[in-house]
Write a structure and sequence with these properties.
With 527 residues, this protein is mainly α. The chain contains 22 helices and seven strands. It has a five-stranded mixed sheet. The mean pLDDT is 92.
């Protein structure tokens, strides 16, 4: 059988597998993280010609900056095409997952000369429950992952083409495409700076100095419109402040003030996302709750194999190494408490790096001890497929989760939002946790968050400043409600009469007596 026929057959099998796994695990409901709703609202603003803005029910519009505009822009295209549904957005993410895995399959096959190994890696990647989870929500991870794979794939093609001729870099379309996809990754997620870095490093280690400088200039030019737009609106970047914050969910803990505190934070983050995180993502069927020497040893061993796999990727080793190291550096600098969430777009790369590393290690031992080597397209590359068996259970657990209804606390919260939507005037201001969720179910309401302040009077003054009409006390599981909002309600119960209480677990709608609170806490001339 011809190699090309086998290759296209494997592409077909991977496509069918991805479609099957995605259909089996996709959740038709909203994900409960809240960011997906924010992305959808921003996409609607773009599709409606209102610009990249947060548009409130009272008609006010403020320039958006919390999320980069790339993913909402992608969703807005679907909306303009008439595909304005949550499932359409999720199917698009499933397509991004498929294209990303296929791109890495092709690249791995050509870099290693092992079709069976590349196929095994692609199959295992698709069985990742974390990857399937994020593919089944309207979040930016899959679009970002596709953009990084596309950028690195363009570099690979550039390298391959350069071996057959000496065409100047500026005449290669792949030089420009790599920059555009890398910039696209940055516009989708700011951590895309890692792939911009990888593009420049790729040319540096090829000693193509002019191409390296030109790619760096091209990256800067691509990012310039976003920077100029934010500067024009007086928007300052939030990332430096977040990096220096001890805990963004508890602002009273202040900022990092010493080098030692920063080092401690970085070590904790690297342990959570890399040393412990990589092994948990590669082997989701394992019990990694244990700590101690064995957990550290196995975690470091996995990381070592991952880096050896990067080194074994031939002409792409420096670009891949730069991409991986830049990501690890950003994980270390970011605030903690996120587990492996931000590592999700790296999962396909981790599978490639780890199993190529294992393969390269076995190959090295065979060469040195027995002077033997694997044949091209060795069937031994299918052995990793044995790991599919223990990975079936986590996928089944993911399927069981998506078949469940919303948790009761969220169901009550969403029902309350719909009830408020049908009961009050348009433009009514409601204070609640996760206001983006509330507005999704009550689009005529202006929803705001409460102040993260331990002083109950300060929280109430913030409600007055925001002209809040109603307050929602929920049990969604966020500590901030109990830490900041509830004490304010307890301190001034006369200003928060109960309007509605749901069945257990209780969700309360409280009317805020703003005039009485203002008279007691604020100066007379404060509106």
């Amino acid at each position: 059988m011809k190699k090309q026929t086998v290759f296209y057959g494997l592409i077909g099998l991977l496509t069918l597998l991805c479609i099957g796994l995605f259909a089996y695990t996709v959740d038709p409901k909203l994900d409960l993280n809240g960011d997906n709703v924010a992305y959808i609202r921003l996409a609607h603003a773009l599709a409606d010609g209102q610009g990249y803005s947060n548009v409130s029910a009272d008609g006010t519009s403020t320039p958006a900056s919390h999320f980069p505009p790339g993913y909402p822009a992608v969703l807005s295209i679907l909306i303009r095409l008439g595909l304005d549904s949550l499932m359409a957005f999720k199917i698009l993410n499933g397509l991004f997952l498929l294209l990303s895995v296929l791109g890495l399959f092709v690249m791995t096959r050509r870099l290693t000369g092992q079709t069976c190994l590349a196929f095994s890696i692609a199959v295992l990647t698709m069985f990742s429950p974390s990857l399937l989870h994020f593919a089944g929500m309207a979040m930016s991870e899959m679009a970002y992952m596709f953009a990084t794979v596309a950028a690195l794939f363009m570099l690979y093609i550039y390298d391959k083409k350069s071996r057959t001729g000496r065409t100047p870099f500026y005449r290669s379309p792949f030089f420009y495409l790599a920059i555009l996809f890398a910039a696209g990754a940055y516009y989708i997620r700011t951590v895309g700076a890692s792939v911009l870095f990888a593009v420049v490093v790729f040319y540096l280690f090829r000693k193509e100095w002019t191409a390296a400088v030109s790619s760096a200039v091209g990256c800067v030019l691509c990012l310039l419109p976003w920077s100029l737009r934010n500067a024009a609106y007086g928007i300052e970047g939030r990332y430096l402040g977040t990096v220096m914050t001890v805990n963004p969910w508890r602002p009273e803990e202040g900022s990092i003030s010493t080098v030692g505190e920063m080092v401690d934070k970085m070590l904790v983050n690297v342990n959570d996302t890399v040393v412990q995180g990589f092994k948990g993502l590669l082997f989701p069927f394992g019990d990694w709750a244990t700590t101690g020497f064995s957990a550290w040893f196995f975690g470091l061993l996995v990381v070592a194999v991952v880096f050896y796999g990067v080194w074994s990727l031939g002409s792409m080793r420096w670009a891949m190494a730069a991409f991986l190291l830049a990501n690890i550096g950003l994980f270390a600098l970011w605030h903690g408490g996120n587990g492996t969430r931000y590592v999700t777009p790296l999962i396909p790369y981790l599978f490639v790096f780890f199993f190529v590393g294992v393969w390269a290690g076995i190959r090295l031992i065979r060469q040195r001890r027995w002077r033997a080597d694997f044949k091209s397209d060795s069937l031994a590359g299918l052995l990793p497929l044995l790991l599919v068996l223990p990975m079936i259970k986590p996928v089944q657990e993911r399927h069981a989760v998506v078949k469940q209804p919303y948790p009761a606390a969220y169901a009550h919260y969403f029902h309350l939002a719909q009830m408020v939507q049908n009961s009050v005037e348009k433009g009514t201001v409601v204070c609640c946790r996760k206001p983006e969720f509330f507005v999704h179910f009550a689009p005529d309401i202006v929803a705001v968050n409460y102040a993260y302040d331990l002083d109950p009077a300060a929280v109430v003054r913030d409600l007055i400043d925001k002209k809040v009409d109603y307050v929602v006390l929920e049990q969604l599981g966020y500590g901030s409600t109990v830490r900041y909002l509830y004490p304010a309600v307890r301190a001034y119960p006369e200003w928060f009469p109960v309007v509605y209480a749901s069945p257990s677990p209780e969700t309360y709608l409280l009317r805020f007596e703003r005039a009485a609170a203002r008279q007691k806490l604020m100066a007379p001339d404060v509106e």
